[in-house]
Structures are given as C-alpha cells and as structure tokens.
Design brief:
By secondary structure, this protein is mostly helical. It has one domain. The protein has 18 helices and no strands. Helix 2 packs antiparallel against helix 8, helix 8 packs antiparallel against helix 15 and helix 14 packs antiparallel against helix 15. The radius of gyration is 23 Å and the shape is globular. The N and C termini lie close together (about 10 Å). The relative contact order is 0.12.
C-alpha cells in the first residue's frame, strides 16, 4: 500500500471538512454572540460544557473502539466481527443514552438553582437530555466509517452537523426562540443525521450488512470494553483538561466572564484542526501498521506528522498572539474585547497541545490507551489544582494560564513515553528551530507595527505578509524542512504505486 498517498489524501479530506466544520462552529458562536446577551451566551456554553461531559461518560469510549478494531478485523477479512462490534456498541449506547437522559432530566432543576444560578439552565439541560437519545445512532455509523478508513464520509459528518445546527439556529432565532434556539437546533440536527448516516453507511461501505450475521461473544465484548473504558478514562481526563476552566469559572466568577472565555478558548481550538486532521488518519493507520508489525513505517509517519503539524500551527497561533484585540473586536464585538489577553495565552497553549493530539492518536492506534489515560489524568489533575488556585484570583487569565501549563505537561510526558514504544527521532531540535522562526515572526510584526501608520486592515495585511515570508525563510534556513523533501512527498502522493512513507 502507498501509505504516503493514503495518509496525505486522507488528511487532506479530513482537514477540508474540519475547516468547514470549524467555520460553521465559529459562525454559530458569532450568531449567538450577536443575538444573545453576554450572560446568555455564557450560560449556553456553561450548560453545553456539562452536556459534553455526560456524552463522554455515556459513550464509554466505544466509538473509538470501533475506529480501532474495525481495521484489524478487515485486515483479516472478518466482517462478522465488524458487524458484531457495531451491534454491541449499538445496544450499549441505547441503554446508556436512556439512563443518562433520565438522570439529566432529574438533576436539571437542582443544577439550575445551585450551580448555574439560572432557572433557564433547567430548560436547556432537559432538551439536551433528549438529544442524547437520538444522537448515538449517528455516532456509531460515523466512527464505523473511520474504522473502514472512509475518511470523506467520516470527516464530512461534523461539517454537515454544524451547518445544519447553524441554519436551524438562525431560523429559530428569527422566530424569537432566544437562548432555546441553539438547543432545539441540536436536537433536530441529531435526528436528521441519525436517519441519514445509517443508510449512507450501508449503501456505500457495508452493502452486505444485513446478510452478515453478528455473534457478540464474551471475548469480543471483553476486548471492546477493555479498550473502550480506557479510552473513556482518557477522554474524561481530556474533558477535565479542556472544560474544568469553564466549569470553575461558572462557579467562582460571573456568566459574563464565562462568555468572554468562551470566545477566547474556541478561537484557539481552531488551531487544533491541522493536527486533528492528521491524528484522525494516524489512529486507524497506526492500528493497521502495528498489527502488521510495520513499525518502521509507523515511526516515519509519526515523525512527519510531528514536524509538519508544528510548522503549520505556529504561524497561525502567532497571528492570534499579535492581533488579539482586532480579531475579537471585528468578529464578536466590543463587549468581548476583555478576552484578548486570555486569547494570547491560549494561542501558545494551542501550539503545545497540537503535538499531544498526535501522540494520543498514536497510543490509541498501537493499542496502549492506558498510557494516554495516565498522562492526561496527570495533566488534568494539575489543571484542576491550578484552576482552583488561579481562577478565584485572576479570572479568565488564571484559567488560560492553568490550561496552557497543563498542555505543556501533557506534551512532554506523551512525547517521552511514545519514544519508548516507537523508535522516532528526537523531535525537540526541530521544535526549537520552529519556535525560533516563530519568534522571528513576532519580532518582524512588532517592528512593522511601530513604523507603519495607516489603515488598520492594510497595516495588518502588510505585517502578516512580510512576517509570514520571514517565517518561511527561517524554517528553510534552519533546515526544518527542505525543498527536496517536499518534492519527494508530492511525488509519493501522486504516485499510485505500492510504497512506504
């Protein structure tokens, strides 16, 4: 198999749809920011943060188990195990969805009064609870597409989902639904996706789905659950790492500050889409290569992912670092400008987190999710402690600082541990060189901003073009990347011949 072609084209499709999804998500936030008060905007995302935690627990990590084991079963032409795995996950998700819906409906009034301090939160939670019942069907088939490595269908799901949510929210806001508009939009969207995706999967990918018999054995159940539970623990740690700041802000500070932070944090998560696109390819491909004992190819693929993801993310993060107020003022309005400093801190954190994303996918692919669990929970514990200390004192600045420090801990630990399983070259030198090139980017922008006095858009454009050119030149001068390597990658991607990375 031409793994270079497979990885590059797979990552390309995933990235394209991730960009679309990110764009729709961002427009969704802009739509809410323009139509809701800062307090209601903060309340919606505070409730949404709680719902995301419930989704992680409800899932039990079984979606990612499908992405992990389906490629292994397919490499052995064992389609019965593929269907058996899907049916097992279906039955478990049906039970957990009903259970957690009941729990959320029961707890909604209590949390609304004592945690969110808003009666409206109970309504939001109740509607979100029923959305859980209709969402799990879509999730199973979406992740089965990933297992089959049908990356176009897999990656288009979040893009289609967020487009529908955006459009339905827009219509409902026009009818006066207010803060309930986005919640109803999610419910309707999940219902539509859960009708469409099973049909799409069976017609395009698993046409003999109904003729293949399933056999949910105890050994299969044990295998799926063991991986799933470890993955769930990993995602729980990841949730704590990503959303503890919002939850602690909700409790200790005001909903207005939550609203500011929910402008800064999602803006920097846009930077994750490049490594996330690559990691989506790494998980099933690592599983395949590991099962075939092709460790050399796997090492090469991870090294390339580390290097090029870091090179791509750094300049994008530096744009947020150097122009935070302009970005927030133009997109969200003057009321959200207090989020600028938090945005700068989180931009640095996003660079660091991008590497951890790749490492996490690699650990899952080679069948060691327990390593992810330990590392992420270590970082999550540090994050929780720092949030409890810093947020009461410094608000969103404390939250951003705690998150960035936690990302650094996770990157250092995950990279060191990965090298114990897969023989990858020391990445720190290339990252250091890239960071120096990034510092050059910032210095050029700083100098130009001091000397240029013109229209803000013209000034920003000139700064970005010249600083971007300086960054690219430095990356090549430091030999982080070279022309011959890029040409070779392009040839491999175009070629249809069987070859490695």
């Amino acid at each position: 198999m031409n793994y270079t072609r497979k990885a590059l084209f797979g990552a390309m499709w995933v990235f394209i749809f991730l960009v679309v999804s990110a764009g729709m998500s961002y427009l969704f936030r802009l739509l809410l920011a323009k139509n809701l008060s800062v307090e209601d905007y903060g309340l919606f995302f505070a409730v949404f943060s709680v719902i995301l935690f419930v989704i992680i627990i409800k899932d039990l990590g079984l979606r990612n188990a499908l992405a992990k084991f389906i490629p292994e079963f397919l490499s052995k032409n064992d389609r019965q195990s593929v269907k058996s795995s899907m049916m097992l996950v279906f039955y478990i998700h049906l039970l957990t969805s009903l259970l957690f819906t009941a729990i959320l409906v029961f707890l909604a009034p209590i949390l609304a009064k004592h945690y969110f301090h808003s009666v409206t939160a109970a309504q939001l939670m109740a509607v979100f609870a029923f959305a859980l019942i209709v969402s799990f069907i879509e999730e199973i088939f979406v992740y089965s597409f990933q297992g089959f490595q049908k990356m176009i269908y897999f990656s288009m799901a979040p893009a289609v989902r967020m487009t529908l949510v955006l459009l339905i929210t827009f219509v409902l806001l026009k009818t006066g639904a207010g803060i309930m508009a986005p919640v109803y939009a999610f419910l309707i969207t999940y219902a539509i996706m859960s009708l469409v995706y099973p049909v799409l999967f069976i017609k395009t990918t698993f046409r003999d789905f109904f003729s293949v018999k399933s056999n949910i054995s105890s050994s299969l159940t044990k295998t799926i659950f063991k991986f799933g539970i470890l993955t769930m623990l990993t995602f729980t740690g990841g949730y704590i790492l990503s959303y503890t700041d919002t939850l602690v802000l909700t409790y200790f500070r005001t909903l207005k500050e939550v609203g500011w932070y929910q402008v800064a944090m999602p803006s920097t998560t846009l930077l994750w889409y490049i490594p996330q696109a690559v990691s989506t390819i790494i998980l099933p491909m690592a599983s395949e290569l590991w099962s075939k004992n092709e460790k050399g190819l796997l090492s090469t693929g991870i090294e390339m992912a580390h290097k090029y993801s870091f090179v791509a993310v750094v300049p994008l993060a530096l744009i947020m670092l150097t122009f935070p107020e302009i970005m927030i003022r133009v997109l969200f309005g003057e009321a959200y400008v207090p989020a600028a400093q938090a945005l700068q801190i989180l931009a640095v954190g996003a660079i660091i987190f991008s590497i951890s994303t790749l490492n996490t996918a690699a650990f899952s692919g080679i069948g060691h999710p327990q390593v992810n669990t330990k590392i992420i929970f270590t970082a999550a514990l540090i994050n929780l402690i720092l949030n409890l200390i810093l947020i009461p004192l410094y608000g969103i600045i404390g939250a951003a600082s705690a998150t960035t420090i936690s990302y650094a801990v996770m990157m250092i630990l995950s990279t060191a541990r990965l090298r114990q399983f897969v023989k990858i070259k020391e990445p720190w030198t290339n990252w250091a060189k890239t960071a120096i090139a990034g510092i050059g980017f910032v210095l050029v922008v700083s100098v130009l901003k001091n000397y240029l006095e013109m229209n803000v858009w013209v000034e920003t454009g000139i700064c970005l073009v010249i600083a971007g050119a300086a960054y690219i030149i430095l990356v090549f001068l430091f030999k982080v990347v070279n022309i011959n390597e890029i040409k070779d990658l392009a040839k491999r991607a175009i070629s249809t011949k069987k070859q490695d990375f």
